[in-house]
Every structure is written in C-alpha cells, then in structure tokens.
Write a structure and sequence with these properties.
A 6-stranded mixed sheet has the order 1-3-4-5-6-2. Strand 4, helix 10 and strand 5 form a beta-alpha-beta unit. The chain has 12 helices and 6 strands. By secondary structure, the protein is an alpha/beta fold.
Length: 230
C-alpha cells in the first residue's frame, strides 16, 4: 500500500505540467515546511523552494524519489496520518491481530474461551461479541489519531478490544471513555495490575473489563477455535 502511494505521488509530479505546483501541493498535504522537507532529503533549504517556484527545471527521477521517500518517512514518524487517509485499508502499526466472527458470541462464552476474569462483575452481560482487535497499547498511545481510532473497530463496534503492554490499564480506558464509540468488551492481556480507576471507568461506561493471562499467540488460537464453533 505504501509503495503504491509513493508511486501515485511520484507519478503526479513527473506527469504534471507544473511540477513545482504539484510538489507544493503534496508538501502542504503532508503538513510540512520547505525546510522540513529539505532537511529530510539532505539538501539545502533553497532546493525545495527553487523547485516549487520553477527556478529549477523539473526534478529528475532520483530527486523525485528522494522527495517522495522523505514525505513518507516524515509521515510515518508522525503516526502516518496522511498515509492512512489515502490508504484507508492499511493496517495500523499498533494493531497486532484483528478478525470478525460470522455470528455473535455470548460475552460469558467469550470470557470462558480466554480463561478471563471480569473485573467489572456489576456489568450485566447481555451483548454478543462479533469480532476482536488486539492492540499494542503503547504504540496506540504514541501514534493513534482520532481518525485512526475508528479503524480498530473493524466492521462492527460490538467487539472486544484487547490491549497488550498494559501496566495499570488506566490509559486505554481513559481513551475509550473520551471517544463516542464504545466496544462491547475491553480485555487486558497479562496486565501488571489493574488500576481501580480503570475499573471505575469501565463501570461508568457499562463495559465488561476482563483480564487474561494468555499470551497473544494462544489468544489468537482460541479465537480461531471459537470462530470455528459458530
């Protein structure tokens, strides 16, 4: 997907009747200054300005490649907002695994399948689970934008969001509470401990907060077995 996106940008610049204007369009789309792009390309600051203004002739293939590589690399460092915008199906780096079920799975059955413990027993388990997403909580905190957040829900919000790399579990629940979409269940995979605030937030949102000692590989294997049973 990223390589195709690079080809799209490079092709537009190379075929444009006004390459400088096209370069400027993409630089601004990526939210970069001329100096930022020039630094990433390893060229003097005047080079980008000269290309955009037309003072330099149309850039050759090697310059266009260096420019496009710099745009993409800077976007990745910034959490890939532009890449995600133009490639909506691209898998986010924070998503470890994701799948949908052909039918609903009772919450209690799901918890049993992962040998889980519901930390929010006051919650009446009435919903079904239609899928799951395993998310690296640290990567999500560092890189997930509000637009990207929608992508972790896949085809159905009635799913279990499973967070790895959990220390206290406060941040995932704060993020969920701050967003209008609410999953059917939140699972912490091998948390160091569960913060009472996380449990309180889960109770306020009416979400079962479940912990499991399964590693990711075993978790996915059990999800596959559960999927076959439906």
């Amino acid at each position: 997907m990223v390589d195709e996106f690079k080809q799209k940008i490079a092709g537009e610049i190379a075929l444009s009747p006004d390459p400088g204007r096209t370069i400027r369009k993409w630089r601004e789309e990526f939210g970069l200054s001329q100096n930022q792009l020039a630094d990433a390309m390893g060229v003097s600051h005047s080079v980008v300005s000269d290309y955009e203004s037309g003072r330099r002739k149309s850039p050759g293939v090697s310059v266009v490649k260096k420019m496009v590589d710099a745009l993409i690399e800077l976007d990745i460092q910034n959490g890939s907002p532009v890449i995600s915008k133009y490639n909506p199906d691209i898998k986010l780096d924070c998503i470890i695994a994701m799948d949908e079920f052909p039918g609903g799975v009772d919450l209690n059955r799901f918890i049993q399948a992962i040998s889980g413990r519901n930390m929010n027993p006051d919650r009446v388990l009435a919903k079904n689970i239609y899928g799951y997403t395993i998310v690296d909580s640290v990567k999500a905190i560092l890189s997930l934008s509000s637009e990207d957040y929608l992508k972790i829900y896949g085809w159905n919000i009635e799913r279990a969001l499973v967070f790895t790399n959990v220390h206290l579990g406060r941040s995932p629940m704060v993020a969920i509470r701050a967003h209008p979409l609410t999953p059917a269940m939140v699972v912490y995979q091998q948390p160091d401990q569960t913060d009472p605030l996380a449990i309180k937030l889960a109770r306020l949102e009416g979400i079962p907060l479940v912990t499991t000692d399964l590693d990711v590989e075993d978790f996915v294997a059990r999800m596959n077995s559960l999927k076959e049973e439906i």
